[in-house]
Amino acid sequence: MASPKYVIKGNLSEAQIEADIASYFSWCTPLGSPGPLRLVDVNEPITGADKRYDAGCTIYMQFKKSTGLHSSTIVPISKSVSRSRMEDIREYRALNSLEEDPSLFFQLRKKAEKAYHLQHNVLLSHEIKGVSRAFYVAPLELDKSQYYQTLFNEDFRFHGDPIWFRRHAEIRERFMVRYLNCSPFLREHVAITPHEHVQDHNHFYSYSQTGTDICWHSPQFVGRGPSRLSDVISSIVENATSTAGESLVSLKELSESTWKISREIGFDLRRSDDALQTIKEHGKLVADTYRIRQFVLLANTDKLKRLNDIDRF
Q1: Residue closest to 198 by CA, chosen among 215, 217, 179
Q2: For range 167-182, the mean pLDDT
Q3: What DSSP string describes 210-269?
Q4: pLDDT tens digits for 39-81?
Q5: Tens digits of per-residue pLDDT, 187-240?
Q6: Please, which residues have CB within 8 angstroms of residue 236's CB and are 6 or more apart in sequence?
Q7: 300 φ, ψ to 5°?
Q8: Is residue 166 over pLDDT 50?
Q9: What is the pLDDT of residue 180?
Q10: Could you give the CA distance from residue 101 to residue 74 in angstroms, rounded to a whole number?
Q11: What predicted TM-score, i.e. pTM, was given to this entire model?
């Protein structure tokens, strides 16, 4: 069945977007001696070096593919009572003078056959202030060729490690935060935190191609400023470094919070003496059941404190 004239289909898949972002973050993992911070993917094995970290936060991402919509000035909006919900998105953005040339959107996912809950509500349950972050991630490019140009940008891919402290000056200059903010690949994704519980999947998020003017189609305006993956990840890292890890929780506390969430959403997760192992086991469960990917930002608070203390002088 042909798509309406106002629809711009993308040729990326959610599975490929997830794989590419996970690969990109693996390039951010320090080599050699463990640094003050380390980003760990749920699929990475726990190493002896990971045992040297004592605090952290969990990051949960649900990957979506974007679909484009032409503006009402290019394709007039239908007035039919049986029109598609996509027309509602276009009309709302036009009436509120939001960026729409084109606009992008995604719909929430239906409840999986063997799942207890809607994926959206599970993602929402992982957004806990000071403990874990949870958000949707969708590309701002629709064409995979343009998307891959940002992924394989050699100037940034091999520029250095964004979570890497080689000199104290890099703490002062927030080298890794500037890197994350400037990364073309991370900037080419919108990051949207779920903000309310839903009863069904018939809801949409829309946004501009610059990651601004985010709307929730109840309808509700969510935010005008940019909310890109680069903005969110650099904010998490900046918060951890500027407070010398005090903004994070101990791995024991993080493990306990993760275990409680896991039980609340129906998983029979067993506590382990290894806090990080418990956290990662939960990550595997949400990945297998709800296709939500877990990352853990680990911190060595002693190293962060020493480096920040030196940086003040």
Answers
A1: 217
A2: 48
A3: TS-SEEETTTEEEESS--BHHHHHHHHHHHHHHTTTTTSEEHHHHHHHHHHHHHHTT--P
A4: 889 888 888 878 889 999 999 999 999 999 999 999 999 988 8
A5: 899 999 999 999 999 999 999 999 999 999 988 888 887 889 988 988 888 888
A6: 57, 59, 133, 297
A7: -100, 100
A8: no
A9: 63
A10: 9
A11: 0.89
The burial of 23, by beta-carbon neighbours within 10 Å (0-12 exposed, 13-18 middle, 19 or more buried), is given as exposed
Place of tokens 């042909």: 2
Instruction: Supply 300's token pair.
Output: 């060595």
Tokens of 206: 């829309």
Q: b/e map of 177-213 (b: 16 or more CB within 10 Å)? A: bebbbebebbbbbbbbbbeeeeeeeebbbbbbbebbb
Residue 62 sits at φ, ψ, to 5 deg, of: -110, 120
Indicate the helix (H) or strand (E) that contains 128: none
Q: What residues contact 152, with CB distance under 8 A and at least 6 apart?
A: none
Strand order in the sheet with 103-107: 7-8, 67-69, 103-107, 204-208, 214-216, 220-223
How far apart CA 310 and CA 211 sit, in angstroms, is: 37
Report how far apart, in Å, the C-alpha atoms of 9 and of each of 103, 104, 210, 235 are.
12, 10, 18, 31
